What does this fold into?
Amino acid sequence: MIRVDLPGKTLICLLAVLCAAYPVEAEFLSARQARRPPRGRIACLPSPTMGTRYLDSDDLGRHSIRFTLWEGNGIVYTCRGGHVDVTHLRKVADWTAYLAYHLREMMLKNETQMSYKMWEPSRYHVEIDYPPGWEYLPAESRNAIAREAAIDLAAYLAYTASVWHEILTWHGFKGAGVYPEYHSAFSWEDNYSNAMGSYIAALALRDRQREYEEAMTLYLDQTIRSLGGRPRQVARQAGEAVRGLWFTGGFVIVTMVKRHLDIGFDTGSITPWLVPGMADCPDGEPWLCPVPTLNAMDKHRMRVHVEIQPREWEKGAILRKAYPDPKTRRNRIDPTKHLAVIMDEIRAETIKRYGATADVYEAPKSELQMRTLATNADPAASDMSLDDEGTQPGHSR
It folds into this structure.
């Protein structure tokens, strides 16, 4: 006969009651889809320079976790969310779905540790402390709670990994093995687009009537539409309007002189950088994209500890930021403790390199910039206005 102590019995009863509030079903990936990690996608900068792909917001195609010719990737402009990198968004969403599948399996098996690798060589370590009596819950109740907990934790892990990627690229990481990606680190749409990916993936995974890819297609289209998505020429026009203010350069070489360093963990959301006065954009309020945090696990009565083990060439410089005292230095990063410390150091370096307002939002103010904003320029005219410098081709972010 199995014996359970009184606190354990009490918590079992409580969880059994609470699970009634959870959705009965949520469409996860199939076992076949989750057999291997999501595919990579080639991203681009938001600036109107070489390698940038602008999209019409009403023609994003069908989402697919595997290779497809029917999926649109690139940059869209929205009235309430500014530039959105759909490629970044899709990548974070797919990793959310992939991790949710494996986290749910882990929870149902009552396993406490999981280790995995994502885009870069870094390895992630997750440890879960379940509530007393977890293993004695009825299967239906435990499955309902595990589904919701897996979605919340996966969204946090996928978004955190996107922040970690930006940190790596700030320190010169070569994602494609050729070009350092420092020039793209924390560009003005990065964190916002990544957070939106985890947010939309959670919506898709909680859809009780649609499979993941169908739900992602639906909720991505709905979200971009609700934010006031515009045609591709407006996205290009918005990028051109901040030339000289948010980035400098021409068609081949570009420098991001503004870096959007807000990762949202302190406030729970990220505010987008809007370009004012864009065609057909009313003066609406920006939509603050929610950022997933580990606090979401409290409602599931689970305690989770996450660590990142850097394995890249750049790890030394990052670990020195996380552990200023060499005597206390370890070879792992605790996101809840160290990301804020690392970001403070990156902010100081940004200001030193690009000026006191390099991490602060600024709207175009010059006569030339405002004239660009007021004119609904077509793509051909924008192309002709470019000089012979610019950005490197699409990178592997």
